[in-house]
Design brief:
The chain has 444 residues and is α/β, with parallel strands linked by helices. It has 14 helices and 15 strands. Strand 1 and strand 2 form a beta hairpin.
Length: 444
């Protein structure tokens, strides 16, 4: 495949005598979508994928209150309420319709936004699209079923409280964003108002990916283009100066300590830049931090980094892993030392590996229907159409500059573990300027 070939050539070029010359990189490209505005008020995106045996039909519903990695209680309850029956079909009939497709509706929540998917045969794609639209636009909202749904929500919240990784993320996200994220049980009136306010045509995109995709409504290509992703950096407001560590005494972490770091760069970045830093830092087994913690130090099976979009051009870097408790101080020192090294030095071979990993990741995503549709939906949640993002020519300096943006940005670290020495180890291993808060594992 072309992108994989590019990655191989890049790896080869960095080892030749011509490696000192700047490399003109190709762009990270997406397939061309057909975008339509339809008479039923929906935006529809069609993409032929000849390799796909099934057609993936999805509906993306945007709503205020978006946070990567956290499914809002309001969105979860609203989605389950809508799937309990529509004005035209009971829940039993909705279940039977899904059985006929041979596929169940898969739901995901990102903050208060919702994504629903169905994988169906190409000839069933129109009916699947109609069913998803019916669920979103014509929910029955029967008062008699609501109490049962709130009971399920309470159990879901309790499972989250028992998870060190889930609770660590909520605490870090709250500290980084400056917004509280309490568990809540919305009333029926709040859920109904939420659906009627946000589940409207202007907030809904219908996506069809697969063979023989077609339209079942009167549609025209929009006169104005959707927002395209661009390589320009975007100035964004920041809660500047956040440097915080939260030490959580967690009864469940007996054999290992869990470390999670969230980093928000100084300014907005295009997706390719954020992903490039992740690949250089700890996004793959050959990245700088991963090699140190796994191969050189052997105190963890791996600390992984991944970018998470929290705005149109705004990203967080999430870095997490399980650490041997007695070496938590060494792990924290390594996390900051490696980041500082990336931010202050030029390393051509390291930059070339990061570029190659980024290209491989992108080409793998394009080849995987699930990953591809997820990336598309994630972009649509922010009103951004995936486009073509050029990669810069000067590798090492660009990687260094991006790393500096993250290193000088806002950083929150959560360490969940046990032991009388945990707090002391954390305090001694953090850079200057960090505050430390010690808390029990939250129960509410």
């Amino acid at each position: 495949m072309k992108l994989i070939l590019i990655a191989v050539l890049l790896m080869s070029a960095c080892c030749t005598g011509r490696a000192a010359m700047p490399h003109q990189r190709e762009a990270l490209r997406w397939p061309k979508f057909e975008t339509y505005e339809c008479s039923d008020g929906q935006r529809r995106l069609l993409l032929e994928r000849s390799s796909a045996r099934l057609t993936r039909v999805g509906i993306v519903v945007r709503a205020p209150g978006l946070y990567a990695g956290i499914a809002g209680d309001l969105a979860w309850l609203a989605t389950r309420y809508a799937l309990a029956g529509t004005l035209r079909h009971t829940k039993a009939e909705l279940d039977e319709a899904q059985n006929e497709f041979g596929s169940l509706i898969v739901t995901q929540m990102f903050g208060n936004s919702v994504i629903m998917w169905l994988d169906v045969l190409p000839e069933d794609s129109d009916r699947a699209a109609a069913l998803l639209l019916e669920v979103v636009r014509e929910p029955r909202l029967d008062p008699e079923v609501f109490d049962g749904l709130t009971g399920r929500l309470s159990k879901r919240q309790e499972r989250t409280r028992q998870s060190s990784s889930s609770m660590a993320y909520r605490m870090a996200a709250s500290a980084l964003s400056g917004q509280q994220m309490p568990f809540a049980t919305p009333s029926r009136e709040e859920v109904v108002a939420f659906i009627k306010t946000n589940w409207i045509p202007n907030n809904i995109s219908l996506v069809q990916l697969g063979q023989h995709v077609r339209l079942d409504a009167e549609c025209t290509a929009p006169k104005g283009a959707l927002i395209e992703s661009t390589p320009e950096r975007v100035a964004l407001s920041r809660t500047s100066g956040v440097r915080k560590a939260i030490v959580v005494q967690s009864p469940s972490n007996t054999e290992s300590a869990y470390v999670l770091m969230l980093i928000r760069p100084q300014h907005g970045l295009p997706a390719a830049d954020a992903d490039l830093f992740s690949q250089a830092y700890s996004g793959n087994p050959g990245s700088a931090l991963f090699k140190k913690v796994r191969r050189e130090r052997s105190y963890s099976y791996g600390i992984w980094s991944v970018t998470e979009r929290v705005g149109t051009a705004d990203y967080w870097l999430k870095v997490d892993g399980e650490i041997k408790p007695e070496q938590i101080d060494l792990a924290l020192k390594d996390m900051f030392t490696v980041m500082h090294d990336l931010a202050t030095s030029d390393n051509s071979s390291r930059a070339a590996r990061a570029y190659s990993s980024l290209l491989w990741q992108h080409s793998s995503m394009l080849d995987n229907d699930t990953a591809f549709s997820q990336e598309l939906a994630d972009s649509l949640l922010w009103g951004v159409m995936p486009g073509s993002t050029p990669l810069p020519a000067d590798d090492a300096r660009h990687v260094r500059d991006i790393a500096r943006t993250f290193y000088d940005g806002d950083i929150v670290v959560v360490i969940a573990g046990q032991g009388d020495t945990l707090e002391d180890k954390v305090r001694k291993s953090l850079p200057e300027g960090f505050s430390v808060e010690v808390v029990p594992m939250p129960s509410k």
